[in-house]
Amino acid sequence: MGLRVLVSAPYMLPVLDRFRGLFERAQLEVVAAQVEERLSEEQLLAYAGEFDGVICGDDRFTTEVLEAWAPRLKVISKWGTGIDSIDQEAARRLGIRVCNTPGAFTEAVADSVLAYILAFARRTPWMDRGMKAGRWEKIPGRALHECTLGVVGVGDIGRAVLRRAGAFGMRLLGNDIVEPPAEFVNAVGVQMVPLPDLLREADFVSLNCDLNPTSYHLMDEARLRGMRPTAVLINTARGPVVEEQALIRALQEGWIAGAALDVFEEEPLPAPSPLRSMDQVLLAPHNANSSPQAWERGHRNTIRNLFEGLGMEGEGALAGEAPARP
């Protein structure tokens, strides 16, 4: 029986044909999954025992799924950074290698955060809507040097956001369970503070933390009520970092002034969600990483991780590129 690979990563599926030559030379049979955003536990269980490797997005590789796919499954190669949808403890127990591509989309996501900050500060989307509706309305805005930014999660992306915001003269606050390097703190001028202080003082709160047990529903009702009523929440991290129903109440009742959301607790965002009809909310379909060059690196690094996990290190056209792994 030959080696079989399932590809379910939404960003790779449209360009999969470009890489079929690599898979054929490696004598891998590749199957493209039918997926809109991610495969559910039930959908993955239907594939049990059929594949030696997988290139996935945010598919739900729970303990039950991994036990059903074992012992044949050898490697899960995640397209992108976040591996919170994979039960890593179960994978280790079953001898399944889990790989990702950390840092692949740092710059693009940081750019997206700044785009949201500028949009809300300068009110450009709302002036555009007004003009196209026939109104000549001068909506008050703010200069960024008048504003305070709070970044929750000062890892690679959080630091990139802070560097950009510092160039605009914003006052910078940070919070993380891991202290960032002192040289970064000093160079950028960020003040590391407890989360309640950050929420109380920031005009913009950017969530850039991983999803883990300490960050699940980090922004709950109590913390949302701790923000300024004029503040904007930006989430380009993971949907479940925010308790979505509490956020909807916060926006409806004016606890905060607005939100920019690239990620959601359920993706795609359900059609009935009140978020879709809120004028003070900017929405995107989990696409803050958009960058053709970064996507291409992500494709190739993910394939390389797959090959290595299947014992095919240095295979094909990917041999000369540096490996990317957790």
Describe it for me?
The chain is of the alpha/beta class and 326 residues long. It folds into two domains: 3-104 and 291-318, Rossmann fold (3-Layer(aba) Sandwich), CATH 3.40.50.720; 106-283, Rossmann fold (3-Layer(aba) Sandwich). The chain is 34% helix and 15% strand. The chain is built from twelve helices and twelve strands. It has helices at 20-25, 41-45, 63-69, 88-94, 106-122, 124-132, 156-167, 182-188, 195-201, 221-225, 244-253, 292-309, and strands spanning 3-7, 28-32, 53-56, 75-78, 97-99, 148-152, 171-175, 191-192, 204-207, 232-235, 258-261, 281-283. The strands form two sheets. The chain has a seven-stranded parallel β-sheet, with helices on both faces. β7 (171-175), α8 (182-188) and β8 form a beta-alpha-beta unit. α5 crosses α7. The longest helix has 18 residues, at 292-309.
Secondary-structure topology with pairs:
Layout: E1 3-7, H1 20-25, E2 28-32, H2 41-45, E3 53-56, H3 63-69, E4 75-78, H4 88-94, E5 97-99, H5 106-122, H6 124-132, E6 148-152, H7 156-167, E7 171-175, H8 182-188, E8 191-192, H9 195-201, E9 204-207, H10 221-225, E10 232-235, H11 244-253, E11 258-261, E12 281-283, H12 292-309
Parallel strand pairs: 1-2, 1-3, 3-4, 4-5, 6-7, 6-9, 7-8, 9-10, 10-11, 11-12
Helix pairs in contact: 5-7
